[in-house]
Amino acid sequence: MEGIRACLVAVALASLFCVAHVRSSASDHRYKAGDEVPLYANKVGPFGNPSETYRYFDFPFCSSVPLKEKKEALGEVLNGDRLVSGPYRIDFLSEKDAEIACKRKLSKEEVARFRTAISKDYYFQMYFDDLPFWGFFGKVYNVGKADPSDCKYYLYKHPVFQIFYNKDRVIEINVRMDTRAVVDVTGDEPVDVDFMYTVKWKEIDVPFEKRLDKYKSSSSLRQIQWFSTLNSCVTLLLLTAFLATILMRILKNDFIKYAHDEESADQEEETGWKSIHGDVFRYPKHKSLFAAALGCGTQLFTITIFIFILAVVGVFYPYNRGALLTALVVIYALTSGIAGYAAASFYCQLEGTNWVGNLLLTGSLFCGPLFVTFCFLNTVAVAYKVTAALPFGTIVVIFLIWALVSSPFLVLGGIAGKDSKAEFQAPCRTTKCRRDIPPLPWYRKTLPQIAMAGLLPFSAIYIEIYYLFASVWGHRIYTTYVILFIVFIILLIITAFITVALTYFQLAAEDHGWWWRSFLCGGSTGLFMYAYCFYYYSAQSDMSGFMQTSFFFGYMACICYGFFLMLGAIGFRASLFFVRHIYRSIKCE
Question: 464 vs 336, 479, 555, CA distance in Å?
């Protein structure tokens, strides 16, 4: 237990450091008249493919100033951010009107690149004093009918910056493209372009602490989200309560029946879940794999709790670049001891002897598929030359975190779990001979049970999943973490209850193989989530192309697999508590 406490203390300290870092950043961003305000160009890409982004200066934009790359944190690099000094110079309170940034002669190849980008709705992202803003490359005029050859392609060359300030601080920036200052890039001939820009300043009384409020969801959208989420959750909770009442009445009748049989000392053969008391606590097959899955699920549940804590205290404010990914990497490394302890402790309770092999399996059960997926997708990113391709130095840093932090914590947790010498608490003795499971109807077999188990929990979260997908795989901003936390708690409650109910009906059918079944039923919501990915991709998004498709389905497979492990662990823990309780309540011979 000392190793687990050390892991939790380390995670708590890391969380406090993140909060302190975020709070301390509010003391910066003060300027005097004439001071240069930092402007960074980030990335460009097709609007429908959020993962397909390229460096800003991969396109022949104005680059008359020396390029300086901004030092980025680990999470920013993982997020695909590649900030370099922007093409425009903006001084505090200094206005400019149609200032020439540079003059360029675009070759036929460069004109063709811009034309292709405009046809795919390419956008750019920049940061001005850490405030993000966006704009499109150009516009398409369809002067004919449906024939693409009748389209005219125009490149914007004149952004107009409207900047709002409060005393010595920048509060807001808006950019619009001057639609009258365009360049026709329809043809295949070289074009001369005069890139220019306009800067306007206006004072407002909005405090600096509220300058990010404009990036949060609108109040009307939050109200709709609250109403729809609470409406579905209340309905599901009522249904769950109704089913729980029925289950409790059935259990009560079972207890009365078995108590009456004991008093009458009848020699009739036992039936129902009592008849398998000698097999219900028989250890499952592949117990090392089972304990490893339980350990990984416990770790992922702990990570989720810490992420919610950081979200509620305001670490993941809008466009805090890479904060979430940094937190995930750090917290995952520091909580590896929890996975090692939970897996090794339970494996030893199941009388396992190869605890070293169990630790190796625990360390690779989630990281293994994630590593294989990352290698494939990073190769795709390198081939497409997108910013999602991680530099070699970042890969080395991640490897060192895994080798020097995650792996030692995993080993320490495993040693602590092995030395805990906890015994498996079984209210009934297990017989030497395994009891045969009677033939079961098709709807009581594993696959139909998994399908039924995942449907109700998924129904509780599918509305919130849409908003999450629109944020992660789109351009919306997600800030309603309180709603998400409420939905997560409801998901845990419904998953635990549904798994317990199905476990009871399985035992009532005299099927004692409930260990793996309860884990699979609990984690089946992850399978429904992945099935929803296909619907979202085809009906709710504009994503296209091999690169974006592979990124979406590849990383979502890892995320849904993580949910499968976490909810599977929750479902099994709830079922284990329930099974121990009901068999402790009867007299077993």
Answer: 29, 12, 19
Per-residue confidence at 319, pLDDT binned at 50, 70, 90?
A: low
* Closest by CA position to 58, among listed 43, 76, 72: 43
Q: What tokens appear for 390 in the block?
A: 């991680």
| pLDDT score of 513 more than 90 | no
Residue 174 backbone phi and psi in degrees, to 5:
-125, 145
Where do the domains of the chain lie?
A: 24-215, 217-243+440-588, 285-426
Residue 178 has pLDDT above 70, yes or no: yes
Instruction: Say what the pLDDT of residue 88 is.
Output: 92
- 419: tokens are 């030395």
Nearest to 22 by CA among 315, 248, 346, 242: 315
The confidence score (pLDDT) of residue 176 equals 94
Q: Where are the beta strands (DSSP E) in 311-431?
A: none
What is the per-residue pLDDT for 264?
A: 56
Which residues neighbour 345 within 8 Å (Cβ) at sequence distance 6 or greater? 416, 417, 418, 420, 422
Distances (CA, A) of 355 to 285, 368, 406, 415: 16, 19, 18, 9
Q: What is the pTM of this model?
A: 0.89
3-state secondary structure of 174: strand
- Torsion angle of alpha carbons 307, 310, 311, 315, nearest 10°? -130
Residue 338 pLDDT greater than 60, yes or no? yes
Backbone phi and psi for residue 451, each to the nearest 5 degrees, phi listed first: -65, -45
Q: Which of 214, 47, 46 is nearest to 132 (CA)?
A: 214
Helix axes of 336-349 and 407-419: crossing angle, nearest 10 degrees: 30
Asked if residue 22 lies in contact with residue 359, where contact means CB atoms within 8 angstroms, the answer is no
* Sign of the Cα pseudo-torsion (515, 521, 526, 530, in order): positive
With H, G, I as helix, E, B as strand and everything else as coil, classify residue 126.
strand
- From 272, 276, 285, select the one nearest 515 (Cα to Cα): 285
Looking at residue 367, what is its pLDDT? 94
How many Cα atoms within 13 Å fall on the side-chain side of residue 56?
25
User: Is the pLDDT confidence value at 20 over 50?
Assistant: no
Query: For the purposes of burial, counting CB atoms within 10 Å of the CB of 353, is it exposed (0-12), middle (13-18) or buried (19 or more)?
Result: exposed
Residue 147 contacts residue 175 (beta carbons within 8 Å) = no
- Sheet of 169-177, strands arranged across: 96-106, 191-203, 159-166, 169-177
Tokens at 90, concatenated: 């903006």
